Amino acid sequence: MIKSIYITCFLYVLSFFALAQNEEGSLNLLVKKVENIYSAVDENENYVLAFKTPTQFEFAFYDNANKKTGDILITVPSQLRKDIYLGLQLQNDSCTLYFFSEKTRAITQLNVIRASGQTTRRTVGELAYTDKYLKSVFLNNKFNLLTVTQGKSQINVHAVVDGKMQNHTYPIEMPDMYKRLSNGNNLLNEEADVTLGIDRIYYDIENNVKSSRATKKIYAFDQYIYLVFDDPDYSHVIQLNLEDNTSVYKQFLFNQDKGNNSSKKQGNSFLLNGILFRITMNPDQLTFTAIDINSNKTYGSFFSTPNNTINFKNGPIIQENSEDKHRVLEDNAAFYKKVLNSNLSIAVNQRDSIYIVEIGSYEEYVSNNYNGPNGGGPNISIGMGMGMGMGMGGMGMGMGNMGYGGYPYSNYGWGSPGYYNGYNGYYPYNSSTTTIRTLYFHSMLDTSTFNHEEGIVPISLRERVSNFETGVFKDKKPELIRIVDFKEKILIGYLLPNKNIFQMYSFVK
Q1: Could you report the per-residue pLDDT of 4-22, keeping only the tens digit for each?
Q2: What single-letter DSSP state applies at residue 459?
Q3: What range does the record give for the signal peptide (predicted)?
Q4: Closest by alpha carbon to 425, among 367, 372, 381, 467?
Q5: pTM value?
């Protein structure tokens, strides 16, 4: 009997690690001194990896069976080397790089033919000097550049169609929108030195309290772009419909029975499937609400106080930090105090008929404990697939480290137990100066009734990646990492230090 139990446990452990990751091979790079890695996926689930140096790009092409089909090396035209990289689009026979010149305000396409490596350059349009860059979004077969006119409450969408920019202006009935986009950018997962800032949320890879910590977020799906701003009392929702070129602005008020006027009150939200999941918290009460942003219907509300057990919680309250430490927090009052002394956050992921909600907080504090090369954390980025009816090509975006697919992997928090300098809020963590700490619990809701569901929360992709990286790299993780959303998996590639080898692994979602 005991032997049978040991065999069963051994097989379970083997199956767990098989589920955790598979080695997908390695790529010996032609270029050296890689600065960044980008990627894009087309509608047929082929993908490309782009390795950028100060003067060159190396493109590695893969088919939808994850087999390498070619390599191309190009020299970046000298006129574009100081321009800002915006994005990478993959089509059937070519891939296109987008650049923006701060000096001339020109948006330029650099098209690369897959078969020959031949390049052609074309200016598709120019931005006005009063237009401040916000985000790049690929929707409905189009590359869309979002700008906001300085001092005005309007959003401009510049869509590239047949090699030219088509411009549409969306008036927004939110007087302080520009001010909100200008302020608080040091609290985003992206670079802090931007004129306008807002964190992009992606649904392809699971989110957590780090990736969704910002109180200003942008979402893009179907023909819609949503901007959501959270206050202690309100959530402000802006909808842009790129199909009929209309805009809608709504604000939702969140009052609480206890402590509503507290100066420590915080609010944050997460948008998924047209439902705004909102968390509001003050020293006396926590309120969790789900609202349909189109019908304004409330589907569910849950409440908690510091002196009562959180009855919609699945599992314990966990505190993690980037020093690879975690502990269970059993004191509800301590949870309230810690959360309100940092940044309230909420993230929602769907697994089958269950919403898995992560509620908690995120904070950074100064330390000096990262012992990686050059005294800095890894520079990591993610590429998202653009298939599933989303158009002709896949797009990897950036603006420095911003945008769709061109940012670091730190955002998602998949490093040492939770984070380590990664995908705009996803992975991390330790840099030489900053340590990240998160505090959270999970709640599972039925997607139809929004009732709380009892049960054990499945192990997250973040935890599986973190465990793998800690085991393989210890405290010396590679500095350049790229993540590609690929079918039912994610592919994570690591540029191994001092070897010029890009090693890839796959993880089941």
Answers
A1: 433 444 434 444 444 558 9
A2: P
A3: 1-20
A4: 381
A5: 0.84
Q: Average pLDDT, stretch 20-33?
A: 90
User: For 137-165, what is the mean pLDDT?
Assistant: 92
26 assigned to some structural domain: no
List the one residue out of 136, 17, 66, 206 whose CA is nearest residue 399. Answer: 136
Give every CB contact of residue 201 below 8 A, 6+ residues apart in sequence: 207, 211, 212, 217, 218, 219, 270, 271
What is the pairing mode between strands 394-397 and 354-366? unpaired
Closest-CA residue to 266 (of 190, 215, 209): 215
Domain extent, residue 504, equals: 33-508
Interacting residues of 133 by C-beta distance below 8 A, sequence separation 6+: 100, 127, 145, 146, 147, 195, 196, 399
Q: Nearest 5°: CA angle at 137, between 128 and 194? A: 55
Mean pLDDT, rounded, of the chain = 84
487: three-class secondary structure by DSSP = coil
Residue type, 154: Q
Checking if the pLDDT of 205 tops 90, the result is no
The rounded Cα 461 to chain-centroid distance in angstroms is 14
Strand partners, 7: none
Pairing label, strands 379-383, 480-486: parallel
How much is the pLDDT for 136? 92
* Residue 22 covered by a domain: no
- 257 within domain boundaries: yes
Which residues lie below 8 Å from residue 478, measured CB to CB, with a gap of 6+? 378, 494, 495, 496, 497
At 335, give phi and psi (nearest 5°): -60, -45
135: its two tokens: 């985000």
pLDDT in tens, 404-431: 333 335 444 443 232 222 333 344 443 4
Asked, for residue 98, whether it belongs to a domain, the answer is: yes
Report how many domains make up the chain: 1
- Pairs from 159-162 (Cβ < 8 Å, separation ≥ 24): 159/242, 160/98, 160/107, 160/109, 160/124, 160/125
Q: Which residue, chain included where needed, has tokens 């670091």?
A: 408
* Structure confidence at residue 366 as a pLDDT band (50, 70, 90): low
- In the predicted structure, residue 126 carries a pLDDT above the cut 70: yes
User: What is 199-221 written as a DSSP string?
Assistant: EE--SSS---TTTT--SEEEEEE
Contact 424, 397 (CB under 8 A): no
